[in-house]
Input
Amino acid sequence: MLPSLTNSECKGGNEFSSCPPRMQVILFFVSLYMVAIGQGGHKPCVQAFGADQFDEQHPKEYRDRSSFFNWWYFTMCAGCLVTLWILNYIQDNLSWVLGFGIPFVAMIIALLVFLLGTMTYRFNIQGNDRSPFLRIGRVFVAALTNWRTNLSSAAIEEEHGEILPHQNYDQQFNFLNKALLAPNDSREKEAFSHSEVEEAKAVLRLVPIWAASLVYGILLAQSPTFFTKQAVTMDRSIFPGFDIPAASLQTLPLTGIVLFSPIYDRLLVPIARAITGKPSGITVLQRIGTGLFISIFAISIAALVEMKRLKTAQESGLVDDPNTTLPMSIWWLIPQYFLLGIADVFTMVGLQEFFYGQVPNDLRSMGLALYLSIFGVGSFLSGFLISLIEKVCGKQDSWFANNLNKAHLDYFYWLLSGLSVVGLALFICFSKSYIYNHKVTTRG
Output
């Protein structure tokens, strides 16, 4: 909306090129960083805050909390779906001012609605306690300090004057139990409590599940990148005179999520609940594993479709002409996009609920940040994997040639399919030994 002031011609540019004033450029980048900072505070905390409104000690509210994650993800994806279809059209064909102005007004309304509910929210007020990071970190330090100490249940019971309440102390992450003993030269007046040690164990138990889920993060990184690049080469006509933009195919996973989420929550969960007797129908880890299993089919179908696309390019004699549209409909890509959306309903929502519920109460927002990091790290690993393959294969036999008709994305997709199978196997292995946290009692 700001006037362009004195748009001077760019040095070295043509007669149509112009440079925006320096203040506009500064304002533009400041706004981008503000969006990043805002999302850093909003994304991990909004789910934790919403889920905190449910009393996990109340059976009905505990069951409803599981549905909350379903409907939160459904609403977010529905909003993205509307944005991709409507706002992108407004920005490209009407006005960028209007395209950014509409979300601005929507955010003002959302903030007002949020503030209006202030008097009704449940807040988890923490007491004057040590930072959970400091508390958990000191458990690890104490265990390391006592690493030479011989550990026995009798010694712990003598130290604390009580019988151990759980057998898990001796079965998993036994080395952390040594923090229950106060060393003679320790500055701590007393050893750490059972609950503090269990907090540290709960956090440590998340690491294998997090690592096994990274392959899924790598796989999702292909949807907005190579999937879109495939679509550019294909026939994108919906009806005569109208070609769908390749980037608009990103709405297909969202469509799958919007369509399947109500089916899962209102149909599949009640059926599973009647069979298993569990409030959520199936366990959170079973839900995540189901999504990982479906994602294997999604990337395998992507590999088969890419093989078909390359064959079409060869049969049409268009291998050396990357700018010509192949006689292959873009509808071939629908299954891989749609299956990824269904996989998200299981895996994404499952990971949200898992990392929310399996961390100490005062680390819930950080647990959700840990869930989000799966996809950030997965994107970095995807880039690293592509660079490594490029270095090994060389430019002559590149799987990722600029001319996609000469590339071999099908090889890459089959590789990701194999990695997904390995990731699922590791996930199942870690899940079998996982001990659910029901629930770590924090000192706050």
Observations:
- The radius of gyration is 26 Å.
- The beta strands are 237-239, 242-243.
- Residues 203-432 form a domain with the Growth Hormone; Chain: A; fold (CATH 1.20.1250.20).
